[in-house]
């Protein structure tokens, strides 16, 4: 039996301060007493009341009354079939009605939040890059494996299809062709007869789309075989059949760490028309000197420039458009490479991210003759 805990929240703002918090508490107490809940009250001279109510069935509630006019209620139900929701809705309705009676039309705003469910077999909650919590319509765990590098999940969403999630980070859904197109240059590039290097990209989406465009050769370097295994089986709307074999007429997939590969190519003098970095987003940390992810990012940038043709292009994702400080720091890193570069950026809506995402195009600065 799968026992679930669901948290329900309601906040009520009044247009006037609760000059008598005790009166509000006394007005709401009967609602909880009718449910035969045990009450504990904490009070502060200038900060109102906190009342907790517990029930023998494991459910409980917290009532917080602030002197500036905010009353918040949180209720948690604990059961196996969520039948307690109707009962909680009834309690919240009674609280709203009583508050309207107490304040006689001076209620400014009432806000109820959907229930947050804990303990379910399927995790529906995943954060956006800028720290907001999103509840996805996930109904199935399709794939869940731990590799030497990361946890790999593929979850099914009713809206977005299967979603690849790496160590808690939403990477790509079957709905996210917009991501793949953006990191390839948004349809503005001619890949015919070109040499392309993909760093990462284990979902196969970039490789699948570029192969259609008749390149000379695409080399994809992905460190994690288990990502490829999962996506080959469960992300076929994204990768098609390109991951069925690690070699094709115009592509090869290397299961390796990309840094030694880049260093080897640089030493050999090998050059590419396009380098597509699909390894990681720009770090959220705003301390480049202290964060090892920034060091990794700078190393990848420098090595990529060394294997990029003079007229070639480097494509990569940035991060959420709201992370302006992190994006600015990334652009500052571009000015610290071994060779001068220029860049442009594009903002794209990636469906499963539920936020706007920034993509960069970087190229070597043309020297004046």
TrEMBL record:
- Keywords of this entry: Acetylation, Phosphoprotein, Polyamine biosynthesis, Transferase
Pathway assignment reads: Amine and polyamine biosynthesis; spermine biosynthesis; spermine from spermidine: step 1/1
Q: Could you cite one Gene Ontology molecular function of this protein?
A: spermine synthase activity
The record's annotation in PROSITE patterns points to:
PABS_1, PABS_2
Domain of life of the source? Eukaryota
Q: Which GO terms describe its biological process?
A: spermine biosynthetic process
Query: So what family is this one in?
Result: Belongs to the spermidine/spermine synthase family.
Q: What is this protein called?
A: Spermine synthase
Organism equals: Alligator sinensis (Chinese alligator)
């Amino acid at each position: 039996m799968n026992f679930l805990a669901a948290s329900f929240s309601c906040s009520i703002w009044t247009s006037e301060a609760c000059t008598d918090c005790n009166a509000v508490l006394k007005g709401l107490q009967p609602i909880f007493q009718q449910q035969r809940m045990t009450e504990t009250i904490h009070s502060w001279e200038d900060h109102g009341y906190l009342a907790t109510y517990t029930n023998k069935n494991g459910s409980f509630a917290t009532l917080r009354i602030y002197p500036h006019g905010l009353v918040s209620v949180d209720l948690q139900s604990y059961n196996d079939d969520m039948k307690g929701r109707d009962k909680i809705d009834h309690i919240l309705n009674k609280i709203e009605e009583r508050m309207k009676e107490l304040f006689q039309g001076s209620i400014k705003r009432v806000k109820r939040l959907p229930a947050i469910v804990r303990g379910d077999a399927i995790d529906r909650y995943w954060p956006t890059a800028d720290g907001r919590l999103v509840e996805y319509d996930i109904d199935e765990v399709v794939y869940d494996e731990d590799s030497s590098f990361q946890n790999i999940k593929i979850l099914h969403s009713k809206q977005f299809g299967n979603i690849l999630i790496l160590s808690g980070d939403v990477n790509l859904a079957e709905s996210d062709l917009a991501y793949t197109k953006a990191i390839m240059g948004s349809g503005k590039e001619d890949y015919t007869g070109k040499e392309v290097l993909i760093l990462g990209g284990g979902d196969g989406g970039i490789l699948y789309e570029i192969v259609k465009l008749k390149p000379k050769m695409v080399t994809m370097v992905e460190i994690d075989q288990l990502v490829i295994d999962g996506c080959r089986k469960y992300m076929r709307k994204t990768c098609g059949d390109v991951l069925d074999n690690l070699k094709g007429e115009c592509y090869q997939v290397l299961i390796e760490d990309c840094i030694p590969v880049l260093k080897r190519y640089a030493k050999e003098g090998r050059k590419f028309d396009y380098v597509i970095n699909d390894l990681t987003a720009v770090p959220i940390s705003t301390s480049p000197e202290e964060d090892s992810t920034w060091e990794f990012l700078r190393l990848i940038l420098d090595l990529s420039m060394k294997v990029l043709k003079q007229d070639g292009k480097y494509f990569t994702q940035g991060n959420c458009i709201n992370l302006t400080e992190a994006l600015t720091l990334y652009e500052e890193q571009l000015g610290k490479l071994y060779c001068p570069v220029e860049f442009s950026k594009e903002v794209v809506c990636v469906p499963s991210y539920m936020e706007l995402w920034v993509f960069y195009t970087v190229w070597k600065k043309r020297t004046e003759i």
